Amino acid sequence: MAPSVLTDGPILFDASIYSEVCLRKGIEAYKEFLQIDFLSSNPAAQLVRLTPLSGSDPNALNLRRQFLNYVLDLSVQQTMNPQ
Predict the structure, then answer these.
(1) E strands, 1-83, where?
(2) Which residues pair with 45 in a beta bridge?
(3) What's the longest Cα–Cα distance across the chain?
(4) What angle do CA 8, 56, 18 make, to 5 degrees?
(5) pLDDT, mean of residues 66-78
(6) What is the pTM of this model?
(7) Rounded to an integer, what distance in angstroms lies between the CA atom of residue 33 and that of residue 36?
(8) What is the pLDDT of residue 51?
(9) Which whole-number Å values give the CA distances from 9 to 4, 21, 36, 77, 81, in the listed order?
(10) pLDDT in the model for residue 56
(11) In a designed cystine with 41, which of 8, 45, 46, 57 is the match (CB 3.0 to 4.6 A)?
């Protein structure tokens, strides 16, 4: 299931699309902009809450989209260029 950015609720990252390694790299890259909390994690998926650090940021939805795109890009690169 693809993550939904239409709400400010938690996002489910399916491990078949988003590797945990890439998710953690995204967290590191966005730690200045988002508080990212793992609500649950198992081999199949991670449930994550993204909260803008600036409080009620009007660009919160955009930040969420940027984070998701970043993690997806990392995951695609990892899939296409496994090391």
Answers:
(1) 11-14, 34-42, 45-52
(2) 14, 42
(3) 40
(4) 35
(5) 93
(6) 0.81
(7) 9
(8) 84
(9) 9, 22, 12, 27, 32
(10) 55
(11) 46
Place of tokens 């991670």: 46
Q: Is 55 left (phi over 0), alpha (psi -120 to 50) or beta?
A: left
Laid out side by side, the sheet with 45-52 consists of 11-14, 45-52, 34-42
How many CB atoms are located within 10 Å of the residue 59 CB?
Answer: 12
pLDDT for the residue 29: 95
Secondary structure (3-state) at 8 = coil
Comparing CA positions, the residue from 61, 39, 47, 51 lying closest to residue 14 is 47
79: left (phi over 0), alpha (psi -120 to 50) or beta: alpha
Q: Which two tokens stand for residue 52?
A: 């803008």
- How would residue 25 be classed by pLDDT, with cut points 50, 70 and 90? very high
